[in-house]
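## retry 2 of 3
previous attempt timed out at serialization; input unchanged, resubmitting
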Amino acid sequence: MGESRYMRLGRSSVRFDEPVSIISSASVVGTKEGEGPLGLLFDMVGEDDTFGCNTWEEAESSLQKDAVYLALKKANLKPEDINLLFAGDLLGQSIATSFGLAVYGIPLLGVYGACSTCGESLALGAMSIAAEYADRAVCVTSSHFASAEKEFRYPLGYGNQRPLAASWTVTGSGAFVLGSGKTVTGSSRALIRGVTIGIITDYGIKDSMNMGAAMAPAAASTIARHFAEWGTTPGDYDKIITGDLGTVGQTALFELLKKEGYDISDRHMDCGIEIYDAGTQDTHAGGSGCGCSAVTLSAYILKQLEDYDKDSGKGWRKVLFVPTGALLSKTSFNEGKTIPGIAHALVIESNIA
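## retry succeeded, writing output
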């Protein structure tokens, strides 16, 4: 192994001397997501949310299988070209992942960070490549509205009422092919410059219908630590993008960061707010789920980075991507436990000089 290709910054951050390339990506979503503002940008929209399967869980497995297939096809790669697969979902024992991806035969590291799993999988994949443990990796996550409702709340047939603070679990899967400089033969979609790993943060929230409030403290913690460890400020990023705080969590995030001396209100974007039309789609506080940040990153955020032009001001040069997760289960909720949160941050840049 040659000289180090990464540098530790503080306790929880790593900056890569040579960036890790996002070679390709793909997004597969359900009907509701296809009807939203980003609908035309997704690679594949299902005709219905069963995706031709018999159960909601099988449908979510199909989402992951299709997303990985499309991402590999775009990169002109085969499963045997991939060293590591980082994947996860919201279901017990990560069954959407295990049943959906077994067909590829890629060495698997299953991950779970609730709705932050997209950030966790990308961080682990990028660090593995930067440390030269892998030449190429695939990172994929998914969620499905119906399977998540059954897993965490109530079966759809129960017809429970949703409070306005509730978010709508995105039916979707996003897959990303990562590579080192020596394995990228053409242009890549964007570059991962480094990561800041989240710390479990618990403000005592117990309302499982208000995920935004539970996750906002974790997002604030990670973003503030990132600024301190990297020596940056909000102005160094065109966008600071959280995963699925929704409208309630966004307000809490702004307040918490202002107490730390940071105002991100002029450049913040939340994937859960962007993916649905609040005026026409009944999703209350916005979107959530592992698939929310993943499909938004693939379909929209990376496109903005690809379109960057410093002369015209089009697109974005650099973003801080911060998927957020609420670390609860049916068991912990029923036993009266609080809802801890976590958030992982990635610095993603345009590969256009």
